[in-house]
Write a structure and sequence with these properties.
Chain lengths: 98, 436
């Protein structure tokens, strides 16, 4: 079989069915990502503030936000007045990245 | 035997199982002496647990700075062949200086030699799942480089979480991603085997009263290690429960060690010292923080260890001789530690905003079942038995099979390297007997 380099996913698609859980997970991540980025567009926020806006647990928000930080969509801002929580903001050059 | 006929046959002098610091040291010594070595690693990168640590005790040298030159030397050595994502399925002794192993290599879906580590696939991948190399503190993509100092520094596809969208392939400039890869089995003929399968960390979910999993600001020492490492998941040390910068951290020593109730009665040898190390590092990272260590006995037995302990005390780390009974969470994420103050003879409670469980060392038991026609004996604690501990520490119950590092019991990094050296010396002497 002649394999077309750079387009091999289609060969595996014939044999391997992507579990529903995986596609659901992706949809969920995209929804959360979008709402976090939308919330941050309105102003810099801390983890508890974001969690409250999105009605997520602070733990879940921390995980998602830190992932977005790692993926280069969000960056760390100043600390709050009590020196407890950091503010996070949209990365200046990260707005249009997927 | 029909499968074996289709398998690709490989020949080496020595098979080293496990490419952590002990296995790596053994492989390197043997390769330097001219022996051909096949080094197997089940993970996607060599370097074991050490490559993921922040600093080492008692010198506070950077762990990555010690590991990476060694790892590069192993990766570049002409006498060492490395298989990542590979494990032995079975090992048969065919006679003196004759072993046959069946090795299964899982597909990485990336041609490592062509991958430049540019991470464009990572950027293109839409999936986000839990990053096991950051011990669950943050996410990673399904097309990913395990961690920045991984060796090989090449991408891999997490096929279980991949949606097969093909975005990574379209982004890859070298076209090194290949979804047509399949698991491969090899028949490996060797003269000797070194077991360096390392250890497992105790899972604190087995002690529900400590609240791990339930209260998100109770973390394991390995998670704290990641928070302190240069390749850390957060921008600084933060509570995973809500992102607050902690200022009052407690350590619970002997979590899963010296505890018959969880089936591990022995001391893990490293927890006291790594906790003291982390306490010192935390005082550097968070100068305003209070650190409390709840201990049963501080076992500071190595060279410079006691001085390191005293140094932590001088820096202001509070040591409380106490057995922690229960940890309960408060609404603000803080934790109440209920403990027996052994010196005062009373039960007390104290509030902390983060608790680190100093988890112990457990045996990695899988390897003994791989030997089919001879028994690889384990000791009473299920580590590989050293049959002649004083005279020949690497010797196991099977002639020609040697053990290195924490596969034989809990030990620290210098001892693991020393043990890797001993295993390579004993393997050499065994191999030389053949040519006599």
């Amino acid at each position: 079989m002649e394999v077309e380099k750079g387009k091999t996913a289609k060969y595996l698609k014939e044999k391997h069915i992507v579990p529903k859980k995986v596609t659901e997970q992706l949809k969920q991540f995209n929804r959360t990502k979008k709402s976090i980025l939308n919330a941050l567009k309105e102003g810099d926020k801390t983890v508890p503030q974001l969690a409250e806006t999105l009605n997520l647990s602070t733990h879940e928000m921390m995980f998602q936000l830190m992932s977005l930080l790692k993926y280069g969509l969000v960056e760390t801002g100043e600390m709050d007045d009590m020196d407890e929580y950091f503010y996070y903001k949209i990365k200046s050059d990260g707005k249009n990245k997927s | 035997m029909s499968i074996q006929k289709q398998m690709k046959t490989l020949e080496y002098d020595v098979l080293v199982v496990g490419a952590g610091i002990a296995g790596g040291e053994s492989a390197l010594n043997l390769a330097d002496l001219g022996y051909k070595v096949l080094l197997l690693e089940k993970e996607l990168s060599i370097g074991g647990k050490m490559i993921l640590l922040s600093k080492v005790f008692p010198t506070l040298d950077c762990a990555a700075c010690i590991t990476t030159p060694k790892v590069s030397e192993i990766a570049r050595h002409p006498n060492i062949t490395i298989f990542t994502g590979a494990e032995p399925q079975k090992i048969l002794k065919k006679g003196s200086h004759r072993f046959e192993a069946v090795v299964l290599q899982k597909p990485r879906y990336v041609h490592v030699a062509d991958c430049t580590g540019c991470q464009l696939c990572e950027e293109a991948c839409p999936v986000s799942v839990t990053d096991e190399y950051q011990y669950g503190l943050v996410g990673r993509k399904a097309a990913y480089i395990p961690f920045s100092i991984a060796s090989p520094r090449a991408a891999a596809i997490d096929i279980d979480n991949c949606t097969l969208c093909g975005a990574c392939e379209r982004a890859c400039p070298t076209k090194c991603i290949d979804f047509t890869q399949t698991p491969e089995e090899f028949l490996v003929k060797i003269k000797s085997v070194v077991i360096a399968t390392g250890f497992e960390l105790f899972d604190p979910l087995k002690i529900p009263r400590y609240g791990y999993g339930k209260y998100k600001n109770v973390i394991t020492s390995m998670q704290m290690e990641r928070e302190l490492a240069p390749t850390r998941p957060f921008n600084t040390v933060l509570r995973p429960g809500d992102g607050k910068m902690p200022d009052n951290i407690a350590y619970v020593l002997c979590t899963g060690s010296r505890d018959k109730s969880v089936g591990n009665p022995i001391c893990s040898q490293i927890c006291c010292m790594y906790s003291i190390k982390q306490a010192q590092l935390l005082m550097g990272a968070l100068p305003m923080a209070d650190i409390t260590i709840y201990y049963l006995h501080i076992r500071a037995f190595g060279k410079g260890f006691n001085e390191f302990y005293v140094q932590a005390q001088d820096m202001g780390v509070e040591f409380i001789k106490g057995k922690v009974g229960k940890i309960t969470g408060k609404e603000n994420g803080n934790l109440v530690v209920r403990y027996e103050d052994i010196k005062a003879g009373t039960v007390k409670e104290a509030e902390h905003d983060m608790v680190v469980l100093s988890v112990g060392v457990l045996p990695n038991q899988g390897i003994s079942g791989v030997f089919e026609n001879e028994e690889l004996q384990l000791d009473p604690f299920h580590f590989v038995n050293q049959v002649d501990l004083m005279a020949s520490p690497a010797k196991t119950s099977i002639e020609g099979v040697f053990v290195a590092g924490t596969a034989s019991g809990p030990m620290d990094i210098p001892d693991s390297i020393l043990s890797g050296g001993a295993a390579s010396a004993e393997t050499t002497s065994y191999l030389r007997k053949e040519s006599l």
